[in-house]
Amino acid sequence: MIPFTKMHGIGNDFVMLDGLRHPVEESLLPDLARRMCDRRFGIGSDGLILLVAGAQERFRMRMFNPDGSESEMCGNGIRCFVRFLRQKGHASDARLRVETGAGVLALEETPEGHVRVDMGPARLRRAEIPMAGEPDDRFVEEPIEACGRRFLGTAVSMGNPHLVVFVERAAEVPLEEWGPALENHPLFPKRTNVHFVEVESPTRLVQRTWERGAGATLACGTGACACTVAAALTGRAERAVTVRLPGGELRVEWLEDGRVLMTGPAETVFEGTWLPD
């Protein structure tokens, strides 16, 4: 039996496992993620998040997509992870450092009860994303073809890859068609998260997301950071914005030193026990 907690950050939901108290065999994790995340035959979620001991810090977050692949980072997930640490009695400090596949991140509780994450620097070089082409070049407002169309995209890494496409009306985007075509575009050797963004004003963005390995989701925290960076890079918005996603809003700021701060909620839905076959 495996105890779990179901949590969400503005609708981006996760199955949380305490691997410190209840270790899971490494070889079982991909299949466990596929089964637990299944919305008809499992618990249902956008990802499986596992708490383990870190090599550099006390705690490490591992995140598995519903298709069983492991992701480097998850912005909404790491806010849930910090709440999970406290609920399980592993930590009580208002400020924490957590090891992830994208490096060590610093987090803190806000007076409003939200979690602020220092996501580290946005990365723009093709080699950092990763993306095919000249390693030191950037991909900003560059053409990319899919579905018989020519898109203009901007690529950003927040420890995981993102492609941002600005559109007139985000609600009108055929996400189920364009999303997977761009996710699996040959330019991205490890696939990519895809975001379609409408600029409401210089301080407000509307975002719809097709997540790598998960499909359409109600929110993507690292994606909101990438969209903020892309909007500022292309002169569409200021460096501090509110990003509205289908599941709620995040506050994101791209600092002058290159770091990105993301602030938003994290909520517990329910707890239970997974019974293996």
What is the CATH C level class of the largest domain, in words?
Answer: Alpha Beta
> What percent strand?
35-45%
Q: Find the CATH superfamily of the largest domain.
A: Diaminopimelate Epimerase, Chain A, domain 1
Structural class: alpha+beta
Mean pLDDT across all amino acids: 96
Question: Could you estimate the helical fraction of the residues in percent?
Answer: 10-25%
Largest sheet: 12 strands, mixed
Distance between the termini: 10 Å
Any guess at the CATH architecture of the largest domain? Roll
Regions with little confidence, pLDDT below 50 for 5+ residues: none
Shape: globular
Number of domains: 2
- Tally of contiguous helical segments: 4
Q: Using the coordinates shown, work out and report the CATH topology of the largest domain.
A: Diaminopimelate Epimerase, Chain A, domain 1
Based on DSSP secondary structure assignment, what is the total number of beta strands? 18
Give the oligomeric state of the chains in this entry, treating copies of one chain as homo and distinct chains as hetero: single chain
Order of helices and strands: EEHEEEHEEEEEEHEEEHEEEE
Radius of gyration: 18 Å
Feature tags:
277 residues; alpha+beta; Diaminopimelate Epimerase, Chain A, domain 1; 12-stranded mixed beta sheet; 4 helices; 42% strand
Describe this structure in words.
By secondary structure, the chain is an alpha+beta fold. It has two domains: 2-109 and 265-274, Diaminopimelate Epimerase, Chain A, domain 1 (Roll), CATH 3.10.310; 121-264, Diaminopimelate Epimerase, Chain A, domain 1. The chain has helices at 29-37, 75-87, 175-183, 221-233, and strands at residues 2-9, 12-18, 48-53, 59-64, 70-71, 95-100, 103-109, 115-121, 142-146, 149-157, 161-166, 193-201, 204-211, 215-217, 240-245, 248-254, 259-264, 267-274. The strands form two sheets. Strands 6, 7, 8, 9, 10, 11, 12, 13, 14, 15, 16 and 17 form a twelve-stranded mixed β-sheet that branches. A hairpin with a 5-residue loop joins β7 and β8 (115-121). The longest helix is centred in the N-terminal third of the chain and has 13 residues, at 75-87. The model has no long low-confidence stretch (mean pLDDT 96).
